[in-house]
Amino acid sequence: MHEVGVRAVDWLYRHRDGFRPSREGADGVPAGDWEIKDRLKPIGELASIGAVLFREGVAGSRQSALTRQLLDFAWRELLDGGGLLRWMQRSEPLSPIPFEIYLPFRELGYSDPSFEEGVRLAHRLRSWSALEAVPVRRLGLAAFERRFGLTPDLSLRQAVEQTWLGRRPEPWTAEVNIGYSVTHTVFHLTDWGANPGGLPAELAEYLAAWLPAWLDNWLDQENWDLLGELLVVDACLPRPTLDAAAWEGFAAAQTPEGAMPVQGAMPGGDPDDVFDLVYHSTLAAAFASVLATSRALGTLREG
Q1: pLDDT tens digits for 45-71?
Q2: Could you give the dihedral angle defined by the CA atoms of residues 75, 193, 146 and 77, in that order, rounded to the nearest 10 degrees?
Q3: Are the beta carbons of 191 and 51 closer than 8 angstroms?
Q4: Is the pTM here over 0.85, yes or no?
């Protein structure tokens, strides 16, 4: 499982320019404002996974160095040292998206005081808390507000009770979109695996009972993107299974270069299009690898 993460980080570093938000289209026309904003989300995901890698302390020196170089590149060149986030903040002052992208960079030591001032000003307005969002999105925003030092409009307990996982419905109804709702509910409650104790006991018991069946299901369907996120959920449980069959299938799906296909085999075509299709599943592979390796080593130490 460790090698999955090593190869994933190598691939992400070699293809780091794919994260560039101002990429030209196939017709040579530069990206418009909405396209640039849409392409900021992957940069925030990159920072979140990078933070996990440094926090867990199980990466080798090369993996750590490449990750730091990748994050430096993302902050300085892709986000213009925070300038691109300030631009979006001015364009959409009540959007939480630039705030959610900024926070993991802030926790990694990057900062933009003027951007933070804008967040605090916007947070005082009723419109900030009036944002209409699906429950797991609202839970995520509450978690990010708490990490930033703001008082959330809803407590995490109130927010999680409105999510699919918080209601613990029939487990066989968990189709693909619900699967991602489950994984992100766990990510937000555990601070991306940093605090497994943040997962309420009743949810941990529910997941312990049904996660093995979900892992088998998405492994059979070769949905590597969702399987990667569910392997992270497993590592967030008080007693992770570190499912050997799921990990063997997951590792076998990774290309020798380190990319992880979304589902089935690796797609072909234009390199930029391929990057857009597989960057998330490759990030999920790095995330799952680091967290599961850390839990496995912890189990060995306890044994």
Answers
A1: 999 999 999 999 898 888 999 999 999
A2: 0
A3: no
A4: yes
